Amino acid sequence: MTRRTVLRVSGVAGSTLLVGAAAATPASATAEALSPEQRTMALRVAKAGAIYPIEVPGFGEGGTASSRATASRLRATEARLRPARLAAVRTGADLLISQGLLAAPRPALLAGIGRAAATAAPAERQGLIALAALGAATVSRHFDPASDSLATVWIGGLAHLHEQGMRPDALRHLETR
Description:
Blueprint: H1 3-32, H2 36-51, H3 71-78, H4 83-98, H5 106-119, H6 122-139, H7 149-163, H8 172-175
Helix pairs in contact: 2-4, 2-6, 3-6, 4-6, 5-7, 6-7
């Protein structure tokens, strides 16, 4: 057997292994994806954050902030997350779901997020922040779903309102869009 034959055979075998590994990746990624309920909660948080306390600017993207909070954009943004960050998002979504907020009206959802953030254990609060960051990045591609900066401010603001006994006021002029 010549050196060229060995390289060619090992190259083909290596390619087969790589193709097999690539084929296995989506199955493992699917196991880490959000459940339908978690995805629904993430989309609800994205829509609430799109207009509260102000409408998120488009940064060159068309449509209103609320119109950009779509299931397809959420899935695309979710796909950009690493497994550990996705686990945090699941924690945040599960916390809100466990508090009965999956179908709550937007003002009650915002108040519930504030209550959850104010009373959450550190890992749960980090989950809420990760969930809010996913929502922000769904509404605007300008934001990074793995960055906590914007989401920390939003979650902290809602927690502060709860601690002060105040309810977030829905922006009525944006509710009808």
